[in-house]
Amino acid sequence: MKHLHRQAQPCRQAHSHSQAQPRTQTHCAKAQPHAHAGFTLIEVMLFLAVTGMILIGVLGGTYANIATQRYNDSVRSFAEFLRQVYSEVISPESIGSSDPDSQDVGSSNDQAIYGKLIVFGLEDEAATDRIYTATIVGDVTPPTTSNGFIADLGAANVRLFCGTDDGSFASTVASYTMLWDAQIRNTSLNQFQGSVLIARSPTSGTIHTAFTNQTFNIRDYCQPGSNSASSNFTTALKDTPGDFSTTDDVNFCVLSDNSTIVRNVRLAADGRNTSAVNILTADDPEAACQR
After folding, report:
1. What is the residue-averaged pLDDT of the chain?
2. Residue 132 resides in a domain
3. Whose CA is closest to 259, among 191, 177, 176, 182?
4. Other C-beta atoms within 10 Å of 114: how many?
């Protein structure tokens, strides 16, 4: 007897009955291999390429944001430095002595504290930008008549306090370093050079601000035993008072590799307090700094 079986069926037993002998046959269909899902090489390469481009975009944007934040920090820090100088002039502290038998400068009857001198451009242009300050002192007795802010300072014999030769008083020179390698430039984006004088009038007590293109090297020559910068400053006030201007704004341009823009920090002409310091936005039509 002939038996027919379907190939797709699983293993089953078939029974054949005959007169001679019964027999049992097992018929198994061949198992079909299971299909395995996966990605082709081209699909994997495309996935990696797209992922890489997304990663580069994210990292590039992150680095750009960090650079922008660093630049903004350097601009704000510089403006705050200028405001701090005004605060120190408005509320001066006496200059302490290392000699307990000596009176602090500013608390005795021989010298008065008048203000601060800020000097720019003493470092090499390619070096880290540092700005130097020194305290201005002068006679306690003011002039009897006023001939103008700068002339009155000259009459009060103001000078820079560079310390004393006996070592009882240290120099008042201090420095401020621009953050994140930012640099101060003029409106032509060349190195800013000159000195800003912020001081109290000997006759009226009013605070004034003046600027001169002269650069007094207080970094190297305002120390005990070497105070030629102070002598040069005093001579300039008395002999060339016209070099000190109180009528023009002072524009500082903050330049940095971290930014494609250049922000303008402006010191108002004849500033009287911290409000004289302003940060102009890059799109301000009055901004004097352009890259």
Report:
1. 86
2. yes
3. 182
4. 25
